Amino acid sequence: MLQLRPNCECCNRDLPPDAAGACICSFECTFCSDCAGLRLQGICPNCGGELVARPRRPAEKLAKYPASTERVHRPTGCEPTP
């Protein structure tokens, strides 16, 4: 099950579980659409994988399967991998 992390790893913008502008890689590194598209050009700086739109969990499932509250913020590590 996806963690649905609560923020962008680059700019620390809040990304609630229902946010339409959240992107993830296959390891669930999480970025806002601005950082994913403009700063990272669709490539995860951690693993080099593709960043895609994060699916949204239906509201009725969030009570039983809540989103993560653990924030990951790497302001100096948000450059694409070579």
UniProtKB/TrEMBL annotation:
Disordered, as annotated region: 59-82
Protein name: DUF1272 domain-containing protein
